[in-house]
Each structure stands twice: as structure tokens, then as C-alpha cells.
Amino acid sequence: MPMTRRLPVARSFCGAVSLIVFLLVNTPNPSVAADGEPIAIRAWPDGRVHIENHWGLCVVLSAGDAADKTPDPSVQKHVTLGTGIDHVWSRRPNQDAATWNPVSDSRLPAGSIRVTSLLAANQIACGWLVRTDGVGLAVLTEPNARGFAAANDTASTDAVPSIDAVVLPSPTADRIAGTAATTWIKTVQPRFVLIPSGSATDGAERFAKQIDTLGDITEIDHNTFAIAQSSEPGQVTRLVTLETEPVQLSGELDALMKKMEASCKRSQAVFSRLSANQLNFRPANGTHTPRWNAEHMMGRQLLFFSQIYHALDPAIPVMDLNPRQMPPDYVAAHPDWGGQEEARQMQRVSDFTRRFAYLLRDINLDTRAPGSRWTLRGLLRQMERHYDDHTANTKKKFQLADWPSE
Question: Structure pTM?
């Protein structure tokens, strides 16, 4: 769990600073249907920063090509430092892969990740502005820039956008204190400043004294930070340091999770072959449609694990996508989705569970988990059986006389 260390930080009033200017590209913040879903910021030893959202998309940010490590280019986009970037990484339902296109419309698809160049006053790229699911992030590569502006914009101090978190370059330590980035951070007043450098250093402490922080440094001993949209006004900046290696789960917990994930994969293999028409098939015997089974399996896992995660980290919301239980009451959430998209939805929940599984590492497997009626061992075993059972029920429908052939 994160460790917070109280520092004797003196708060200072931050007025408008003419040196630092920042503006979004010509359009208001896009409204995205997935606003509020949790985002993971992940730091890596070679300086890469991953921004991962619940729709299954990931943007990999790095200063150079050497860090180009994207094992799945259909959902991961590697973005290196540049001055002409104002693009959106997006994938619409029923599409096999995401696309990387210049922004041309403020109404972006749900789950999109928008990436815009951050430029220094001398028009040299020094980072990126990232927006997804209602959260604004600034990822910097150089702390000594003399000022910031967004690509292709006329600088103005009247349009400072909402920045929820600033990710500083690693290692930061002594380099950040006293730089123009410090002044800019005081101007935009983010909720969090992340330093992917391990435990807090003297340089981080000196930096903390120069911004309006809560007077403490939160130390995270792994590489993942969860954040989601917040409507709470007047939040004060919190300084967070995090390691650049992921948590290693205990062998027993990891084995239980892998069994659940394998069961989910087996289910995906069955549902991915079905058409939208077959998924919507209502058997004459009054049993559920195949789509209900897919939504039900996914929804139960998402609800139960998000309840536990929320109890341990309120930044992760409780997410309930469970369909109505009885066949006459059921209304499909996405009747136009084909089987591959329903399978992706299952995988997104599996990824969500694994992405934030660092929160589970200190939980006794055989006592009731925080925020849940389940023990962790009981929940993992039940979800493993749940996928197999409902997939078997669905396969029985393929033998019915009225089963559609396509």
C-alpha cells in the first residue's frame, strides 16, 4: 500500500504567471461517454510512460525510438517527442484495431486518447498533453524548459485547461527544484504531481516546498498510479513518487488469477465466433439470449472486483454493468456488437482486474475482502467456474432447432 510521509511544507499563494502559458488546441474539452472510468499511469525503467484506459487502449510515451515496445499495435500506440502532434488514438466498437488520426472533430469516440504536443517557449517539444475519459495529464520530458504552450496555438493565459496530473521526467530529484516547470505546475494546480523515481529524494522534498502541496509525499513502491475524473473543487496538489517496476503478486494469488483469466479466455473463444444476430437470439424455451450470458459474466467480475478496489483506492469507482436478471426484463446494452466486441469487453474486464491487482497483494485470501462479501480465494474460484458454466449454457443453445445459422 502507498506510504505517506509528512513534510514541513510551507504553502504559498500562486497568482497568474506571465512566463508560463498553456492552451488547448482551438476546441473545448471533448465529451467522452467513458468519462469517469479509471485510468492507469505506468512508469518504466527506460523512461517510458504508459497511459492505459478502460476501453483497452494504451499510449506509450517516450523521448526516443529506443523505447519502442508495443507488443500489440492494434491497441497500443508508441508516441515519440515531436512538435506537430494533435492526434487521437481511438477504436470504435466492432473495429479490429485502433487508428491514429489528426484531431478534426471535438466529438471524439468513447474511450479515445487524445495526445497533443507540449512546446517550450522556444517551440521545442518538451512533453505531451494527454486527455482520456475526462482526465487531463501532462507528461514532461524536460524540467528546464522556459515555458509551455500547446502545439499550433496562440499563447494565452486566459485558457489554462484542467490538468489532473503532471508526470515529471525520471530521474527528477535535484533537477526539478527551481525550474520554470515548478512555476507552471503552480499555475495549473494539478491534483497530483508524479515523480517516477522511487522513494522521495532531497530534490523531491525541495521541489515540494515550492508548490502548493498537501505538505506530504506519498511513496508508491510499484509503477502504477490509478486516477479518474473528479468533480471535487479546490483540490490541493499532492506529490507522489513511484517505482518503475510492477508489483509481483504472491504465487498462490497469481495462480488463482491466471485460472480465472484462462476461463475468461475460453469463454471469449466461443462468443467471438457469434454474429450480432446470434448473440441477440431469444430461444423459444424462454432462456436467456447468448448476449445476456456474456454481459452477465463480464458484469459480475467487474462489479465484484471494482468494489474491492474502490474500498482500497477511492480513485477507482465501483462499476456495475450487470444486466437485468430475468429474461423478460433484459435489454441488451449493445445489441449491435458482434461476438468479437463482446469478447473484447470480457477481456477489458480481465485487463482491468489485472491492471490494479497490486491492491490485492496484502489481502488474506481466506478472510472477507474490503468492500466485498467475498473472500478473495472464493471470488477468484467462483469467477473461474462462472465463465465455464455460462459458456456451457450458451453452447447448448447452438443445438436448438430455432438457432440462427448466421
Answer: 0.87
